[in-house]
Amino acid sequence: MLLDDADYMDRALHVAARGRGLTSPNPLVGAVVVSPDGVVVGSGYHRRAGEPHAEIHALRSAGVAARGATLFSTLEPCCHTGRTGPCVDRIVKAGVARVVIGVEDPHPQVHGEGIRFLREHGIAVTVGVREAEATRMNLPFFIHTQRGRPLVMMKVALTRDGYVAEAPGVRSAITAERAGHDSHSLRAEFDAVGVGSETVLVDDPELTARAVHRARPLTRVIFDSRLRVPPTAAIFGTRDAGPIVIVTTKVTLAGSPDRAAALEANGARLLPAQVHDVTSALMMLGSEGVTSLLLEGGPTLHAAAWRAGVVDRVRIYVSPLAFGDKGVRWFETRSTVTEALEDLDVRMVGPDERTDGYVYRND
Ligand code: AOF
Ligand code: ZN
C-alpha cells in the first residue's frame, strides 16, 4: 500500500537528522527514493560540507531503481555548482519521474531555480511537504542565508524565584548536574557559544563542550566592548577546543593597543565592530561563517539581544532553589519571555525544569 507524501518526507527528515552537528555551514538534508509501488529503494543524507549532497547519496543507493521513481528531498535540490553539484542534473539523468521537496532552498543561487529546472525537464515537482519541519531543522542555515547573522539561542538558569546569581560578582550554582550535562550537549550542536565580559570576569568559564562528542571545533565568543577580559582567564587555557573570538569596538581597540596585543598573544582573535551594538556584532560573526550561536549570558548581553530582536530560540532552566529577597535578577521575568515563545517544550532534567521555545515572529 502506498503511504502519503508526508510519510516518506518524515523518513527523509529522519535520515537528514543523522548529519546533526556535522554539516555546518551547510544544511542538514535527507533524501529517499521511492519506487512506483511505494517501496523505499534508496536513501541518503548530507554528512559534511564539501561532501556529496543527500540526493546524490540516495540516487547512488537506489541505482537503476531510481528510474521512474519518486525522490523525496527535505531541501530543494541545487542547480548550482558550489563545492559539489548540481544535483538537478543527476536527478534528470537518473530518470526520476517525480520530486517531492520539503522546502525551497533560500540560497540566492538556487531559490526556486532548482524546481524550475526539474519541471523544464519533464519531472513532476511537489513543494512544501512538511515545510515547517524542514525549515525548522535548518533554522541556522535559513537565518544565516536570509539575514546574514547566526541563529541565536538564549540560555539561562534561574532559581524558582527568578535569580541568576546570589549577589553581583558571585559565581552561583543554580541547576544540578544533569542540567549541566544537558547544556554541554546543547553546546555541541552550535557553531559558537557566546558570553558577555562580565560572565568571564565572574564565572571564569572554559566554554567547552565537555563530556560530549563534538566533531568540530567550538568557536567561543566573548562580547567585550571595553576589553575588560584579562589574558589570564581560564578560557585561554582551552585553545584546543576551538577559536576564541573577542568582539569589541574599533574605538576600544584603538585606545587599548597593549591590552589587545596581550589578548592576541594568548590566542584570542579580536573582531572590532564599527558601533557598540549586538546586531552589528552578530553580522560580523555571520560574515565569519558562524551560523548558530548559543548565548549563555549574562543578563546584560541577554537583554541587549532580546531588545534588538535577534533572539530566535530560548532555553530556560528553573531550579527548585530560592534565594529569597536578594540576588541578581535576570533582565525580565520568566513569564514575560515565555509569553513571546511558541512551540514550548517543557520537561524535567533531574530536579530542574527545562523550557525550550522558538521566538514567535510574524515576518
Ligand atoms: C548540502 N547538502 O544535501 C544539499 C545542499 O558547496 P556545496 O556544493 O556543498 O553546496 C552547498 C549548498 O547546496 C547549500 O548551501 C544548499 O544551498 C545546497 N544544497 N547542500 O550541503 C545537501 N542538498
Ligand atoms: Zn545539491
Would you kindly provide a written description of the structure presented here, covering whatever features stand out?
With 363 residues, the protein is α/β, with parallel strands linked by helices. It folds into 2 domains: 5-137, Cytidine Deaminase, domain 2 (3-Layer(aba) Sandwich); 150-359, Dihydrofolate Reductase, subunit A (3-Layer(aba) Sandwich). The protein is 30% helix and 25% strand. It contains 13 helices and 16 strands. It has helices spanning 5-16, 54-62, 87-93, 113-120, 131-137, 139-147, 177-188, 197-203, 250-255, 257-265, 278-287, 299-307, 334-338; strands spanning 30-34, 40-45, 70-75, 98-103, 124-127, 151-158, 163-165, 192-196, 219-223, 244-249, 268-273, 292-297, 313-318, 328-329, 341-349, 352-359. The strands form 3 sheets. It has a 9-stranded mixed beta sheet, with helices on both faces. It has a 5-stranded mixed beta sheet with strand order 2-1-3-4-5, sandwiched between helices. Helix 4 (113-120) links the parallel strand 4 (98-103) and strand 5. The model has no long low-confidence stretch (mean pLDDT 94). Bound molecules: ligand AOF and zinc ion. Zinc ion binds at residues 53, 55, 77-78, 85, 87.
Task: Give me the secondary-structure topology.
Layout: H1 5-16, E1 30-34, E2 40-45, H2 54-62, E3 70-75, H3 87-93, E4 98-103, H4 113-120, E5 124-127, H5 131-137, H6 139-147, E6 151-158, E7 163-165, H7 177-188, E8 192-196, H8 197-203, E9 219-223, E10 244-249, H9 250-255, H10 257-265, E11 268-273, H11 278-287, E12 292-297, H12 299-307, E13 313-318, E14 328-329, H13 334-338, E15 341-349, E16 352-359
Parallel strand pairs: 3-4, 4-5, 6-12, 6-13, 8-9, 8-12, 9-10, 10-11
Antiparallel strand pairs: 1-2, 1-3, 7-14, 13-16, 15-16
Bound molecules: ligand AOF and zinc ion (ZN).
Residues 53, 55, 77-78, 85, 87 line the site of zinc ion.
